[in-house]
Amino acid sequence: MSRLVVVSNRVGPVKDAARAGGLAVALVDALRAQGGLWYGWSGKTNRRAADSASIESAENLDLATVDLTPDEHTDYYNGFANRCLWPLFHYRIDLTAFDRRYYEGYRRVNAKFARVLFPLLRADDTIWVHDYHFLAFGNELRHMGAEQPIGFFLHIPFPAREVLATLPHHDAMVRGLFAYDVLGFQTERDCERFRDYAVREAGGVVNGDHVHCFGRTVAVHAFPIGIDTEGFAQIAAEDKEARRQYEKVTKGLAGRCQIVGVDRLDYTKGIAERFQAYERLLKEYPETHRQVSYLQIAATSRGEVAEYRQMREELDGLSGHINGTYGDFDWTPLRYLNKPMPRRALAGLYRASKIGLVTPLRDGMNLVAKEYVAAQDPEDPGVLILSRFAGASYQMPEAIIVNPYDTKEVADALQIARYMSLQERRERFEALMVRLKTEDVARWRDDFLSTLAAVRRRVPAAS
What we know:
This protein is an alpha/beta fold. Helix content is 45%, strand content 19%.
């Protein structure tokens, strides 16, 4: 069996993979099964960062990490990855920093990662590259002579052709993707957008699941990522920390209906629009006063980026306005926290919440939606309200699907969820769980790797 090499921006955890979530578990299991190397950035910046990897062994697999210089981190990570690709791929052209310096830094760092990994590779390795940080990575490896099968999975949405075309060097970025053997996307819609770009912008040809362009052919598939459904359900029902959180929340609610939202603090998540929809619920349905409580957890991320600081200020203002307008000395309508919560405690929190509000403006998949459902009590499940612009909506039609930009529709959905009958809630939950168990994270991993294993062609480097 060939060794598996996983390439991602951050490496690990290995020992605490179960605490980190289903993705870490899936990757660690695959690496252990095949013998493997997990490779990526160390998370450290060093002015004297060398073109070499630090390698350590952990539980029968190897971890290899590379330091970046402060300038490399600024241009590659904060710059092109998170100030250009992230907003652009989420359709926020207005927030996209079209800075050619960032692009050149991104290319240099992708080349550095490839240069350091190349001598560590074995001839029979299978390489699995993850996410928007490494769009150019496969092509750099091919330039160095790598002939191993290389697959790439994009965890975020792939944008429409007209949106992608606003990016300087968009053609070079897509050309580089054809150095991979398999391209994996979250949804079939993402695949369609990629094929549309290849055909209409680059003169490519589509033949079934394969796209031929720039003198190469790549297999293009949708691999919707899942969670460890049964494992998370078991945590919610049996874990001590989850039970403590459930009991604590239930006692504090005193019979109120809790709405919960859990996100990274990010402008793609639609949290401001969610707050406005909740305010509309309170305004248009006065009977909700004192009967509902909305808890929003939004752990701070990328705090050094100006757009994120501004968003935090906006949310602070909105939550203060809602509580000041509608709250009372014994009822706080909206509780808004900017700190992460342990995954096991989240399981108990989800189980205690009668409504899960997951309304991103654009999302590749959104695993919170899946975890919320998996955590529910089968005898008395809550209701999921889900954005139509989350990739998860294609797998979860039994949720209440909403347009996150329409505050009236979201407010009405909250009211519908409050009064939904037990029978209907059970029927929706059971249908969702059948699909979540079948299309779990293990299937995502196995489907991708089996597709990549079937591809044994050799691809020349792109010019």
